[in-house]
Amino acid sequence: MPGPILAVERLSKGFKSGGQLVPVLRSLSLGVRPGESLAVVGRSGSGKSTLLNLLCGLQTPDDGIITVAGESFHRSGNTSFEARWAELRRRSIGVVFQEANLMPALSLMDNVRLRAHLAGHLSGNERGWLERLGVGAEADRYPDQVSGGQAQRAALAMVFAMSPALILADEPTGSLDRHTADAVADCLFAMQRETACALVLATHDTELASRCDHMLDLSGAG
Amino acid sequence: MMLVRAFVSHYRRHPFQLAALALMIVLATMLWAGVTVLTDQARSSLFQSEAAVAARVHVVHSDGQPVDVDDFADLRMAGVCVAPWLEVQRPPPEGRVVGIDPLAMNCFGESAPGGGAGTLDGTPFLDISEAAHLSREGHESRLYLLAADKNLALPQGYVSREFSLGPPTGELADSFLLNLDALSLLVLLITGLLVRSVHRLGIAQRGGSFDLLYRFGVPRRRVRQLLALELVALAGVCVLPGLWLGAQLAGVLGSGFGQALDSLFDVTLYAGSADSLPWQAAGVMVLLVLAVCLVDWVVPQHWQGVAGSRRGRLVAALILSSGLVGVALAPNLAWVFAGTALVFAGAGWLTPGLLALLAQRLSDHASLDENDLLTRWRRRELAVMFRHLALPVVALQYAMATVLAVQALVTTFESTFEDWLAQRLEAEFYVEVPQGADAGLAADRLRKLEGIGAWHQVSRGEARISVEASGSEGDTVAVDLFALNPIGDLVVGWALMASVNQPWQALEQGGVMINEQLARRRQLEVEDTLEITLAETVTSAKVVGIYSDYGRPAGEILMSGATLPRNFSARFESFSINPGALTMAEISEHLAETWNTHDLTVRDNASIRALASQVFGQTFLLTRAISLLTLVLAAVALLIMGWVFFTTRAWYFRLLGIWGLPAIVVRGQLRRLSVTLTLAITLAALPLGIWLTWALVSRINPLAFGWSLPMDLYPLFWLELGLVALVTGLVIALLMRRQLVHRASEKQVER
């Protein structure tokens, strides 16, 4: 069995509020192997998004160690960490948010091409990813010319076009209706299995969470 | 009350928008108030300057003896309105000052020099006691008894005479005042655009709240009333500091800046700080704010949509074309101004769309190279920005075009005027021929003087001309006559606009030269034959040259004095003299002896030139200052708008960071985008600026004043503007930098 692509040890993070430190994550540890999926659930404010931010280096932990694709990061604000995190996000970590994942000035196709180009995986098959996610016909349209579901599929196409080792998805279907959300989730899991990348999915949706291999409930973590 | 609170709640959440709008109104008011004060001061300063060089009348003894204090007392007791006028000539840079007695000037009323227009601060008028003090220090001085009117009834033994200091400058001043007024209007237009652009940004974001209020049952008219009330209150509050700042700004420019320039370039700025706040400017600004912000209510909805459409662009192109053609063919000044307005309207309408289209095209081109995807994205973003920042883009384009044109005009004017003045005042001294004295005797005497440098006799008078080729009887026109004898070294260096071969020889042999004004007005060319009536003697002469003449609008012919008929009576005669190996005092002695008079007026041309240059120097300075201020305001507005707009796009730059682009690369992209935006506006301003320069020198000046200026371009100014654009773009990027750090992106990621 391969080692984990993502490993977290004793991770802690808090925020200052009214002069006091409010802990959000306390000594959290987890591991995700390639091809595995982990659902992060919990009530609002339990630290789901904070955890995902920490896992891709957009925030710095107060304590603990995060290891992604063999590279370890800890609390230090060392500037070289920033560059290494940036390199990881560029080549290995695909991030999907609830919305606003696309550059509005570029067509869906150009968005996918740009993301693949940044990851160094521009293959000429970017239209193919859009087609596989069911938005090939909209490839030359702009984000404001397609529906929310189509934009989210294009966002997934962007992530898969970069061949990531790890996908971090923060409420990727949160703004979609049930039917569209199911379709987008189907695409996400199918492609994740096909590419054998690891997936960490933050969601309120228990049905969506249940489709993951593992589940982490942060409700009591703080 | 609750409605009002709900209405303004937007600004509680977005105080920066309120601050930006308030700042823009304050800056716009500051600029407008500054321009108003400076223009008013330029006007009064020019009047003051002109008063110093204007032709005047003084009273002298019939026998040529100098007047003194007893004469003043005798004349006043005889009921004649006279006042002492003590001229003191100091060496440069102080130059000439005039001592006057304000009390004695009372009987002059409105026409009192130095009393109505200015203050007794030595620019150039001061109290006669101070002038007397300077005179006692050994500076050359002369006392005149100034008369209020040429046609005074004078006691026995006195006569009145005119005296003047140099070339009349009124029309030149009018030209600049006209340009200042046009510039002020342009400033008003630019500030209006800027205020509107900031206001529109806020309204676009408040649209949702207004719709909600409407759904809650608040009529749209009520919303509009509140919006108007809000604007009136905001404008009312903001114009006050704006007025104060504008007055301060004018004061700084009028004193500190002026003094710095005075010490550096000997350019004296008479205008100082304003005595009171320009309240009129406040009223104009409040009305302007209301007009530009609320104009949408009176413009039909379907018109507003047309602006960016294909049909709209076609209309804009038509407006631009008709403006261009209109200015080129306009028969009078009103049409030129109307055409210029059309050109600005058309160019402003088209520019943002064309720039966006260009950016889009370049973006499509970039996609051909797969490694150029970021460039493609940047160009697309640029296209979006040109569309969204249309108003500040156009305002900056106008401001830059204005600065370009004004700088080019002023620089051309300065150099041309300097050259022209140098030609006209080539000799070191000029001596007026006293009333009744025989200039011919003096000319004979000068001819015999050994060691004297170049000199000529100047005769001025009137003539009537008609063009022989026209063949129409009675088609004659009165012109000024300017006769020189001999034609020598003092004039042969003149740059002529058009001439025959060896024009000065041809002039000596009976040809005439005409000034540009006359040539334009009568469509005269070199080789045309004129029929000239001089003292009832009619002669024919060929036009052998056309010369520039910037001082006045009158048509003028230049002839050799040797060809004047014997019975010709000159209105004014003088000698221009280079002393050569002699001193001017020696030459003056010879002339005084010839004319048997002590009342000899000898003027130093260098000081006259300095005086005339000074008069225009300050006008040039003010014009430049106003255009520069406009540019600064437009750059600040673009900075604010650019920053606000970039903030709304900040997420997409953060997204690049989330996608793993190093922060330094993201910042580089931002920098390139903002700098490209501002530099592109500079490029768009260039053709408009060059065209405006042409319109000013080749259309407005000839139509208004009869003379044109050479069309010179100054690429160094273009570089200066490019630098302003570069700095603006870099500052936008710098302000945005803080918003791109990861910590700031946390909120977005946490959504």
Main beta sheet of chain A: 5 strands, parallel
Oligomeric grouping of the chains: heterodimer
So what's the overall shape of chain A?
Answer: globular
Average of pLDDT of chain A = 86
Q: Show unreliable segments of chain A.
A: none
The geometry of chain B reads as elongated
Taking Cα atoms only, what radius of gyration of chain B do you get, to the nearest Å? 32 Å
Q: In which range does the helix fraction of chain B lie? A: 55-70%
Largest interface: A-B, 35 and 29 residues
Can you tell me about this structure?
The complex is a heterodimer of chains A (222) and B (751). Helix content of chain A is 34%, strand content 26%. Chain A contains 7 helices and 9 strands; from the N terminus they run βββαββαβαααβαβαβ. In chain A, the strands form 2 sheets. In chain A, strands 6-7-8-3-9 form a 5-stranded parallel sheet, with helices on both faces. In chain A, strands 2-1-4-5 form a 4-stranded antiparallel sheet, covered by helices on one side. In chain A, β4 (63-68) and β5 (71-73) form a beta hairpin. By secondary structure, chain B is of the alpha+beta class. Chain B contains 20 helices and 16 strands. A 6-stranded mixed sheet of chain B has the order 4-3-2-5-1-6, with helices on one face. A 6-stranded mixed β-barrel of chain B has the order 8-9-14-11-13-12. Chain B starts with a helix and ends with a helix. At the A-B interface, α1, α2 and α3 of A face α11, α17 and α20 of B.
Question: What is this entry, summarized?
Answer:
Helices cover 34% and strands 26% of the residues of chain A. Chain A is an alpha/beta fold.
